[in-house]
Amino acid sequence: MVKVPANTFVMTAQAAHPFVEAAEVQVRLPQVEDELVKQGARRGLLLAITQASWHQYRELSSFSRGQSTLRNNNSVLEGKVKEKDEALLLKTQERTLREAKASLLGEKIKSLDQDLSRLTGENKDLHDKI
Fold it and tell me: For a designed S-S bond to 36, which of 12, 46, 68, 107 qualifies (C-beta 3.0 to 4.6 A apart)?
């Protein structure tokens, strides 16, 4: 049997289709090999090419599934990041509002302190007059 490294032969999707169908209906490789020999090819080389191609097809299918999983995971993570960014923005806005309210309350307190001092002074003046 001729050994062919898995990466030496890549079949087109059209050429791989019969082998994929064969695998789906659980046709054993000897049956595929017999079919290829009927078409006039050397048995050992065709079997090696078929095995290498099938190996590559399985690897590519696995990579494709992995890629889909990674895309889905990435989408989920991007959604979570967006939610966190929105939450951070809301907290920042709330903090800005609290700081503005605190500043306004501080000004009101100063104004009330000034009014209290003025009224205390006026009250003392009135007590002195009485």
Answer: 46
